[in-house]
Amino acid sequence: xxxxxxxxxxxxxxxxxxxxxxxxxxxxxxxxxxxxxxxxxxxxxxxxxxxxxxxxxxxxxxxxxxxxxxxxxxxxxxxxxxxxxxxxxxxxxxxxxxxxxxxxxxxxxxxxxxxxxxxxxxxxxxxxxxxxxxxxxxxxxxxxxxxxxxxxxxxxxxxxxxxxxxxxxxxxxxxxxxxxxxxxxxxxxxxxxxxxxxxxxxxxxxxxxxxxxxxxxxxxxxxxxxxxxxxxxxxxxxxxxxxxxxxxxxxxxxxxxxxxxxxxxxxxxxxxxxxxxxxxxxxxxxxxxxxxxxxxxxxxxxxxxxxxx
Length: 309
Fold this sequence. Notes:
The structure is a single chain. It is rod-shaped, with a radius of gyration of 41 Å. Helix 2 (12-79) packs across helix 3 (89-100), helix 2 runs antiparallel to helix 7 and helix 7 (211-262) runs parallel beside helix 8. The chain has two domains: 9-13 and 219-308, no CATH class; 29-211, no CATH class. Strand 2 (144-150) and strand 3 (153-163) form a beta hairpin. It has helices at 2-9, 12-79, 89-100, 127-137, 167-173, 181-187, 211-262, 277-308, and strands at residues 110-114, 144-150, 153-163, 200-209. Helices cover 64% and strands 11% of the residues. The protein starts with a helix and ends with a helix.
């Protein structure tokens, strides 16, 4: 009720200023939210692209090791007591990725062949990763991606199923009886066995930290938001000045002139005529003023005639 009475009693200039402020706030909110979402989508696309490139690189290393390196080093696995990770595609990919992480810029990136039953316990799947493996085993999707919260911050992940597709994989993972001696010496006989051909045994996962990218996004957003606010303020100021000069001030002059005329001041001027709506209103008031002047002259003349008679 108070607001209703306030707006009814408020001047046109006040109402107009409130309207402009409302438009300004709505404009900033809509523009800001739209731009923020666009920046978020760009950041997600950038993080996803990085993760996918890393995943494809790892797969290329794995395939190269399987086709070119393993045949050369396979004899060492079977005869030497020291395990040679470069001969095994999975181990080689992991070791190469660890070299990649030595660069401080990529130290927070993580690659993991997350398996519920891994040979190397550093690849032991946690609860989240075990769930991914089970989803892959149900063949729900060929790839999973999304966001995950770590203690270090939010990360983007891409996960793909790791399937035993080659018979050579079973030489190390079917039973301890046929596994290379060096593998048993290094990792023991209690885990990493029992795999079967065409079975999904792990999830290849790449974790890409997103905090730096989103920090950059927030910085860009604040700069752009500042520019938007400044631009809106300038536009609102110009519109306010323009409308005050072309509408509000002219209406105020008509109102003051009308009040003066109502008090009998026929010298008051409504202003110059123009072709817009306010100009038409000025013409109407000028005609009304002329009619009043004529009527007043007639009344004065009639009064004189009456007094004379």
